[in-house]
Amino acid sequence: MARVKLKVTYSDGRVVESIVSPKAEVDFERHFGTSVIKAGRDMHQQYYYYLAWAGLHHAGREAADFDTFLGQIDEVVDAEAQEESGEEPGPTKAARRPETSSS
After folding, report:
1. Which of 17, 84, 94, 96 sits a CA distance of 20 to 30 A from 72?
2. pTM surpassing 0.85?
3. What is the pLDDT of residue 49?
4. What is the C-alpha to C-alpha distance for residues 82 and 64, in angstroms, rounded to an integer?
5. How, if at all, do strands 15-20 and 4-10 pair?
């Protein structure tokens, strides 16, 4: 499988690229019990988030556990799709954290 590149935007404005390594792919498959290829056919938002976290975590660039990471990010998008189109990716290319209302 070709390496997946995801762009992660943190809540503090930092933007980093996460390259999903073979180790991150296997971590994903063990965690979710499905292959990345099968998951790609029905990509849930948590899959994008987990792949982004696993890519950064296994590269030594994200020390936080997955749940902590989720609380620190605003958006994860497919970096390659964005580069190819030159535009912001649409809903099938992006995974955005749902807005929370404070009431």
Report:
1. 84
2. no
3. 96
4. 26
5. antiparallel
